[in-house]
Design brief:
Elements lengths: L1 H17 L18 H12 L5 E8 L2 E7 L9 E2 L4 H14 L23 H5 L2 H5 L18 H5 L15 H15 L3 H13 L5 E2 L13 E3 L1 H12 L3 E2 L2 E2 L3 H8 L22 E2 L5 E5 L3 E6 L4 E7 L4 H12 L12 H13 L21 E3 L7 E9 L2 E8 L2 E7 L5 E7 L2 E14 L2 E8 L5 E9 L2 E8 L11 E5 L1
Antiparallel strand pairs: 1-2, 1-11, 3-5, 4-5, 6-7, 8-9, 9-10, 10-11, 12-13, 12-21, 13-14, 14-15, 16-17, 17-18, 18-19, 19-20, 20-21
Helix pairs in contact: 2-11, 2-12, 3-7, 3-8
């Protein structure tokens, strides 16, 4: 009997290792990995009730995917902007560079860029080390600009450092940019290219993109786009202490340091942003740790439960999703396989297949007013650069043509479902978009536009009045105001 148990255990290990490589993660039923389909259904329903904010979810248990879902128009093959979850990937690049002897965490930051240092550097600046960048303890009181057109090693080094490095936690995206710049200086490759053979290729992360500053340095603190399963693979690598497909890709010692509490950052026991900070990873409640990004991009690792959770979102309440994880999911990650529940698994599968962000709802008995379809609506000069909009009928839906900043985009807007296209979306040029639209009230056309490689979904409402057309717009999330200025146009 002991021999049989050993054989079964060895077989399970071999299956798990064989299922990694650089292909998709292996799949398994929830119950086979100690998770109830009923629990996962309840968790997905709770996510679905958050106002259309969640875009994807994937749970990996004991190395196998047991839950995966995308809210249309988001889909499995879509890249997604990670924002500050990019920081954990930059930290990983530093780990590889340190393992290869290209740098150490105790190296002085200024020593990498002597030509960019101010003429009379302060004692605090001179004492700043790579470790301080990793732990967000650079000594800054506030951040300098992290925008791609302004950030550089020179702008970072010119910023005042009033606190002794290592003594003052301040979340600092330019500090992560400096880690990226240091890796590039020491290896001759930007972080995206440097990670290709060391991380992306071994894990089967295909086609990642990473925005750069004007000097070609990957932004580090944000700008990386990968897919939901790529996030899950990244978390699984850390869960496995840097091992993948039988190889030690990243030193275990680095994984331990990066995900341990290196500095204190608060004392609120109910906040997952007050549990300590590692090397560009947040400590969580309940023994977990995570990388995360603005508007709800999560890679949560549960070492005690042998699980990884990846979520992409366009959310305002990031703590609310983590609270759901702790209350609805974590307590139900059992240690042993549980009895099959085919009925519950069917309900879960059907729910996952129906996931979709809400679309504008057509009002009963309302149709396009006479003299509107096919005519151009022209707007006076405005900060959004919007020149005109035109609504045309096409099949059972609509095509909306927008002219903005001298460029024209055509977007199909189906009624009751999302329709895919490419076009411009604010600062994004020629990107994947999806649209949905309907006449939602008398003389009112509402369209929703999702930029599906980003968290952003914009709702535009055109109201046709006797003396002109009123346009109102609002985004689901934003770094500033989410409501656009009300514009008044005229029909040509």
């Amino acid at each position: 009997m002991k021999i049989l148990f050993r054989f079964v255990g060895l077989l399970w290990v071999l299956m798990r290792v064989a299922g990694q490589g650089n292909g998709p993660l292996p799949r398994a039923t929830p119950e086979s990995q100690g998770v109830s389909s009923e629990v996962l259904l309840k968790f997905v329903e709770a996510l679905d009730q958050r106002g259309g904010g969640v875009h994807s979810v994937m749970l990996v248990r004991r190395g196998s995917v047991v839950l995966e879902g995308w809210w249309a128009p988001y889909e499995a093959g879509s890249l997604h902007e990670l924002y500050s979850l990019s920081k954990s990937f930059t930290s990983t690049a530093v780990g590889f560079a340190a393992a290869e002897g290209k740098l150490t965490v105790d190296d002085e930051v200024m020593g990498f860029f002597p030509g960019d240092a101010p003429g009379s550097p302060s004692a605090n600046l001179k004492s700043m080390r790579v470790r301080d960048l990793l732990t967000m303890s650079t000594g800054h009181q506030d951040e300098t600009s992290a925008s791609a057109d302004k950030i550089s090693p020179a702008s970072f080094l010119a910023h005042p450092v009033p606190h002794k490095p290592g003594t003052h936690f301040k979340y600092n995206t330019p500090a992560t940019f400096m880690l990226s710049a240091i890796v590039q200086k020491q290896t001759g490759q930007n972080v995206l290219d440097y990670l290709q053979s060391r991380l992306f290729s071994p894990l089967g992360i295909r086609g990642p993109t990473w925005s750069t500053n004007a000097g070609g340095i990957s932004l580090g603190g944000y700008g990386l786009k990968v897919r939901t399963e790529d996030i899950a693979k990244f978390g699984q690598l850390y869960l496995q202490k840097g091992r993948w497909d039988g190889r030690q890709l990243l030193p275990e010692s680095w994984v331990t340091m990066a995900t341990s509490r290196q500095v204190s950052n608060g004392s609120n026991p109910k906040s997952d942003w007050d549990q300590g900070y590692g090397f560009q990873f947040w400590r969580c409640r309940n023994g977990a740790y995570r990388g995360d990004g603005a508007f709800g991009q999560y890679c949560i690792v549960f070492p005690e439960q042998d699980a990884v959770l990846a979520i992409t979102s366009g959310l305002r309440d990031m703590q609310g999703v983590l609270d759901l994880v702790w209350t609805e999911l974590l307590p139900n990650l059992g240690r042993k396989p549980i009895r099959k529940n085919n009925a519950a698994h069917v309900r879960l599968t059907e729910k996952l297949a129906r996931l979709a962000l809400p679309t504008p709802v057509a009002a009963a008995g309302v149709s396009a007013p006479a003299g509107v379809v096919g005519r151009r609506i022209v707007f006076p000069a405005n900060d959004a650069g919007l020149g005109s909009i035109q609504i045309d009928a096409e099949g059972e839906g609509w095509v909306v043509t927008r002219s903005a900043n001298g460029r024209e985009s055509r977007l199909g807007c189906a009624t009751g479902r999302w329709q895919r296209a490419r076009g411009d979306f604010g600062p994004y040029v020629d990107v994947p978009l999806s649209g949905a639209g309907a006449w939602t009230a008398d003389r009112t056309f509402t369209m929703a536009v999702a930029a599906t490689e980003t968290p952003f979904v914009q709702t535009l409402r055109l109201r046709f009045e006797a003396d002109g057309v009123v346009l109102e717009s609002e985004s689901n999330v934003g770094f500033g105001a989410t409501k656009g200025a009300t514009l008044r146009g005229r029909l040509e």
